[in-house]
Write a structure and sequence with these properties.
701 residues; Porin; GMP Synthetase, Chain A, domain 3; globular
Amino acid sequence: MNKLSLTSVASALLSFAVLAPLALAQTNAGPATRYTQLNQGGVGLIQMPTARVNDAGSFSINYQDSEEYRFWSASLQLFPWLETTVRYSDIRTQLYSDSPGFSGDQTLKDKGIDVKLQLWQESEFLPDIAVGFRDFGGTGLFESEFIAASKRLGPFDLHLGIGWGYLGRQGNITNPFCQLKDSFCDRPGGFSGLGGKIDYQRFFKGPAALYGGIEYQTLWAPLRLKLEYDGNNYQQDRAGVLVQDSAINLAAVYSLNDSFDLNVNYQRGNTFGFGVNYKLDFNRLKQLKLDPAPLEVPATLAQSVATVDKAKLNQDLYLNAGFVVDNYALTDDEIILKGRQIAYRDEDIAMNRIGRVLASHLPAQIKTYRIVIMASDMAMVETVIDAEQFISAARYSSPDADVKSSYVRRNPQLGTEQWAVERGERGFGYGADMFWIQTFGNPENFYMYQIGLMLSGAYQWNNQFSVQTSAKLNVLTNFDQFNFKVDAQDTGVPRVRTYVREYVTRSDLTMENLFAQWKDKLADDWYAAAYAGYLETMFGGVGGELLYKPLDSNLAIGLDINYVRQRSYEEEFAFLDYTALTGHLSFYYRPTWLDDTMITASFGQYLAKDKGVTVEFAKRFDSGIIVGAYAAITDMSAEQYGEGSFTKGFYLSIPFDVFSLKSATGRGRIPWVPIGRDGGQMLNHPIRLNTLTESRSPFLR
């Protein structure tokens, strides 16, 4: 095939950028508001990615099926300029392994991660421009890079791009970077480490291909048609050499509704495929609520404190404001409430409801409402409401009435108040919750799970000291399908986590932890904790934590130190010989230049005695859903670490009230760890002070 020169490529891109806006001006059509997914996940045509991205918060779960491949993927528009995609590929022509005793007849599975960065947004005369990296952090089966441009012409969306790696194997142009530097002419093979590392040395190197296509919005709104020129020749696929009778691929996408898309496609001139996409918006996701209406502030307030029905006040605070009162103090001119919010994640909504309940019960002589949020018997934050200002705003006495301006947050200022209830500090407590453990890509079964109950109990001696325990009761699992326990790789690294199969299959009822703990607020902004016992599933020992967390600050700093011993996976209360000193200095930072994000960096020594840093990035959307990713980089080499090269993982944290009809403050977490090895592994602390003090600088709301 004749190769195009760099000048030809530049001319094509220039023509695309100049002619497209002229046609757009003639058609006078607006841009599309939602873009469809390509086969491997992410906005695109069929096999080829484009420069288009959806609105921030757009999330899509995708399944695509063809003769040789199946793809499961999830794509999230993390920021307006950043699209991220994670994917599992099922190569149907290859087995997971050559050993039937190891993986049976399961076909080969491969993990992949993609990112796309939009560099330029479409304008009247210029297209969207984006650069992307596909399968850049794995074994590289589909590794590729691309630069793409997209421009709308009425009902037509035109796309042009240059691909390298998997997307550029057609080799129909000379690699433009090769003309700048000889090192770009050849693409190194294989992958570094044992997979999972980012191979920067291969980016934009080797053969390149020009690709493009058109997406047409038909007059029938649910139907879109796609045509693309493919940049791949499929001669080096992991599924084997795939016959390509044509470089033209075709597809039709039908939208069942705002959530579901169905597609059929015809690839390489000889292969049919189909798929389904489920999409939602993490910013707009919400559930209809059947909460009680906020109380109206009466025209006439109560006459005196003596006439207040305190039982009814507490009941209304609980039922209407979601506030559980632990204790209260009522004086001639103020009321102090200590308690917990269990219903309303948004503090403004919570304070509006609490204020309305108090105003509907208390007389005008009460000038100040003080709401103290407690956590584990420690006062976290105090909200002071100016009663007169609040009542005026709640009654909409003026056009510019603003309830939020009637209260301020401050450090708790409690002294020798006369509390209404004499509470005993000693006592028992108990609870039950569900747990859900899942893993993907196992040799015995692609998806494995364990669902059950987490039973907990505690005895408290005083506000600082208690003993706690929890046990896991297995209800439903397929972990019994594990047909091997210990992998054959011997790296010399202590087995601090890779005995996980032994632990989860030991018994249907296991003790998760049993420990004594002490915690206290040392001074304003300073908190401390100490603990000893069976601290988690795999380790017991002693440890402590110190946290500095100023009220409503963007930065908190914590230090934990622990001396631990590995628990036996054969006997509930026994230990193995392995011991370790582990601990980290952690910085919790919420950057002002990146909205609704939390960056955590923890420096220290891990369970396997490797040293390094774990960096975690979390993004919160308007619905309260949080998407996070983390990676641990330590002094352990990729060869020592094993498959995956270093620790990394992702998670989705979902507020319960996204799905419930009643407002709630709890949330669940769905993790995804591609490969769990022994390097970069932290202790699972029984208590985390940064989480315990969440209300001082709310992020999880």
